[in-house]
Amino acid sequence: MYVAVKGGEQAIANAHRWLADRRRGDRDRDELSVAQLADQMNLAVDRVMAEASLFDPELAALALKQASGDLVEAVFLLRAYRTTLPRLAETLPLDTGAIRLERRVSATYKDVPGGQVLGPTYDYTHRLLDFLQLADGEVPAPARTEQALEACPPILDQLDAEGLIERETDDGAAPYDITRDPPDFPVDRATRLQMLARGDEGYLLALSYSTQRGYGRNHPFAGEIRIGMLEVEIAVEECDAPVCIGEIAVSECQMINQFAGSRELAPQFTRGYGLAFGRNERKTMAMALVDRALRAEELGEPVASPAQQPEFVLAHADSVEAAGFVSHLKLPHYVDFQSELELLRRLRRAHAQPPTDDAEGGGQATDDGSKEPAPAAPQASRETEQVAP
Amino acid sequence: MRWQAFSDPVQDGQRHFRQVLAAMAEPGTLHDAAAPAVPEDAAIAPALWATLLSLCDLDTSLWIAPGLEAGGLADAVTFHTGCRLASAPDEADFALVTPGVLAGPGRDSTPAFAEGSDAYPDRGSTLLVVLDTLAEGGHWRLAGPGIPDSRDLDVGEATPLMTRLAANQVRFPRGLDAILGCGERLVAIPRSTRIEASVSATPEEDRACTSQ
Amino acid sequence: MNGYNFAYLDEQTKRMIRRGLLKAVAIPGYQVPFGGREMPMPYGWGTGGMQLTASILGQDDVLKVIDQGADDTTNAVSIRAFFERVAGVDTTTATTEADVIQTRHRIPETPLAAGQILVFQVPIPEPLRFIEPSEEETRVMHALEEYGVMHVKLYEDIARHGHIATTYAYPVKVDGRYVADPSPIPKFDNPKLHMSDALMLFGAGREKRLYAIPPHTRVESLDFEDHPFEVQEWGESCALCGARDSFLDEVITDDQGGRMFVCSDTDYCQRRQEEVA
Fold this sequence. Notes:
The structure holds 3 protein chains of 3 kinds. The termini of chain A are close together. Chain A contains 14 helices and 4 strands. In chain A, β2 and β3 (243-260) form a beta hairpin. The longest helix of chain A has 19 residues, at 334-352. By secondary structure, chain A is α+β, with helices and mostly antiparallel strands. Among the domains of chain A are: 8-82; 96-121 and 148-169 and 177-317, no CATH class. Chain B is α/β, with parallel strands linked by helices. In chain B, 25% of the residues lie in helices and 24% in strands. In chain B, α4 (99-103) links the parallel β4 (94-97) and β5. Chain B is globular, with a radius of gyration of 16 Å. Chain C is 27% helix and 18% strand. In chain C, α1 (11-26) crosses α2 (47-56). Chain C has 6 helices and 12 strands. Chain C has 2 domains: 11-221, Bacterial phosphonate metabolism protein PhnH (Rossmann fold); 233-277. Classes of the chains: A alpha+beta, B alpha/beta, C alpha/beta. At the A-C interface, α1, α5, α10, α11 and α12 of A face α3, α5, β11 and β12 of C.
């Protein structure tokens, strides 16, 4: 005999207890500390901060630990925390020209003022598993130089000075805030960049890749990638000078793209822009390519490829939204499914009936709109359907 | 402060909102707003003061019709809610008015309020209307969503208000929504309400609400 | 709960949603954009409904939460527990005792009463979305009241199947103006939207839209003169309470094709069983 399932609350509590056990793993081993994660899993922590739109390495590491390393889950945890925080102040615009650089590369000039700085990069590592790390090998300290970096003016400024690249100017308008207000398509570039900055890295990577393969090609050159620390400042009423409230790590990528011009405007390179919290180079490169692709309409290019369609790209970029909606298919859908079952059975019964003079398929009925399709006859066969225990 | 805030902003704000929501959902029904006190020389009803407290904040703007700022309302509302004061009525999310304001000294000077657009009809002003009379019955007949058959309302001498709200019908979905306050009584008339002057006016006892 | 405001959301967010709700009620069926916040539950799991519930709930309210009509499905249990924790409100499974009912996919069988508020969790609020995926386009269609495509879609069903093949999320026209998605309730429940005594609020968290159907409002399910709207019927009655007028879930009881039908509305079923006993 069927008995309605009760005790969902107990089942949920037990599931969470089991999950906590699984997360902790073998009790004979040391538990991971949040500080360890923030330190040694720093790229995962940075990605969580970028996609959660909250710069807080400790909490991001906590989210990562709590999520057993599931990045999408960790992003969600941190985002849900972020939304409960009061907004105490708004920072002044960041000047990325003032980044205390640890990495700076350009693919467009062999040498640039300030030079190229590789920094701590996976580039040029041979991707060979380092079995020494299985055996807790000693890690030597990095080589250091006494000499500080020279000034590193943004590389695109050089092109700008020559008029070779479109000039970006701040129109002073207060930017739309996607964390407060729903996007109202079509959205402006500042809004698009906000949405891309918190977009899922894998998604942006795939889209940007598609532009390189011809789906919205835009001839990119990595003009400058800079990674480093940047001071964050706020304006305080009582003080004349802005007040520094701390330092954050950021990654920035400026792409130089296909030139455009018109009868009025001499040809110029165009730009794609990427910026993210932390060390997120791949993310910022992908973001810059997608940003540029989304400018197709503005720059008079045909909009034909997925990466060029703003509503498509932006409405599906957020991993918290996407993961939630895909996963909701796990929830019960008995009721709607039952409705479909009932209809499907009815249609199949109608289908099994010998055709009347009305068309069984749609052809005749659509050709002649006045002709009413045969109503199915569920009344007669309904009673025969059921088997009850 | 002579203008009292809610003693429990979270719970009182919620309770008042539910009164306003019920009023908006069933146009023409009277709702009692247990409202914090307003100064003796205030020109607005306690019910509307409570509405300002429960709905306004840093993200909203308020326009106050000349004459209604009596008792230092403008300072009080910005102090208690943080809302911005709009210099022009069509820039306001909420507009405090009297029926007379809607008539204007001459037709042309009747203030224009934001009525939203066909694509975004929600981006319009909500009128908060100060009334001397607010009662069931009366010669304005309301119909539409939230109203089984019809409902009669007495708003006293407020023909310009009702004419203005009746005009919502032709502009729908653009339009003005109104929350009417008299003492601690509150009634809402959203833009979806169809308004007619009914023939039989029934004089009511106790239709005026004396301010306490 | 320590560290969080009553009902989780901060007051500024609640006020933003409350202002949106008033506009939604004033323009029945119109989807009001709102600054949806992340909730501590995934998008798609009822965050829109939860934000609305959190914004309207007071400490004296009695809350009921159902999913698929049932109070004991895991997500209903989870959402109910959330509000018990963050708002400390009383909860109930009895439809008649609730002030606020949050629901996913069903309207209770017991008729709702004046003063009650039904909050729907909505996944895709835009009824035209699967005909026209672009928000820019559908906004214009609503503005111009251009709903011909919806009728074409329904008519294509008739041409192909002899029936309108939409069984849930069946579009309705609210007060003769806006076409709206009644969330994916089965069309069996559509007639309950019409001239209800209760206020019905709809929240879509991920899509950041909310809308409303006030009480006593005309709600018509779209149809054709020669193909009038009709609800599904079962030949069976509920195996537990014998009801013939309620929406039935099919339960598979063995691997021999055995199955039975029981009320999807567990409170309704329970009450009927008690009446019989």
